[in-house]
Specification:
alpha+beta; 12 strands; 4-stranded mixed sheet; 3-stranded antiparallel sheet; single chain; 6 helices
């Protein structure tokens, strides 16, 4: 298995032109269906909450532009947490965009009540949202839920009704630039998390998120064992 540093070096050398070629070959146009912003339906009829990864600085950017509290924007990624007597507890290593009571992204307007079925923080949306449904085939980078349904070179495409549609060269290059930036940022974050990680004695009922800036509580403040 290659090191994260080797994967980061490759991510930084990715060709925007080649990524754009791959995106053009696959094809994509957003249909504003909301599928990437809402809870995912399982085969057994249950649903899984929307889980879009967001970096600490992306959380703060949304906070600044919309005057939100940290918890309004993000929640601890549920993977790695367990069900305690009073709710989730344990340690996790990422933040996810906050969800509503239905498990949908808290910033998605589904169009009811006169809305237009759009993102209320579109200009500040995380890189994962900007690049959906694509990911880069490098170890240490994340991919949307579900297996890739198409692949062209280093670019993987995940289930989305907008795939296979014509995309302009300009839009493909813009998407390619964001895709490269995301791959680099994800690997930088993973390396920083590894370097900043220090085991903590998590008490019953507590949740600790280890990110690139250290251990935090769900409200974004530094975790202290005192």
């Amino acid at each position: 298995m290659r090191s994260l540093e080797a994967e980061l070096s490759e991510a930084r050398s990715l060709s925007i032109s080649e990524l754009a070629n791959a995106i053009e070959s696959i094809g994509f146009e957003c249909t504003r269906c909301g599928g990437c912003c809402t809870a995912a339906e399982r085969e057994d009829g249950t649903s899984e909450d929307h889980t879009a990864t967001v970096f600490p600085d992306e959380i703060r950017e949304i906070q600044r532009s919309e005057e939100y509290d940290w918890r309004d924007v993000a929640r601890p990624m549920p993977y790695g947490l367990s069900d305690g007597a009073d709710g989730p507890e344990g340690e996790t290593f990422e933040w996810a965009l906050q969800t509503d009571s239905c498990g949908d992204c808290a910033f998605y307007d589904d169009g009811e009540g006169g809305g237009d079925g759009s993102c209320s923080v579109y200009g500040d949306r995380p890189l994962l949202c900007k690049t959906y449904p694509f990911s880069v085939a490098l170890g240490g980078t994340s991919q949307p839920m579900g297996e890739a349904v198409d692949e062209e070179g280093m670019v993987r495409a995940h289930e989305c009704e907008g795939l296979g549609r014509d995309i302009s060269r300009e839009d493909a290059e813009e998407l390619a630039e964001a895709l490269k930036e995301r791959a680099v940022r994800e690997l930088e974050e993973a390396i920083a998390v590894r370097e900043e990680y220090a085991p903590v004695a998590v008490e019953s009922g507590d949740v600790v998120v280890h990110d690139s800036e250290g251990a935090k509580r769900p409200d974004g403040t530094a975790y202290s064992e005192e």
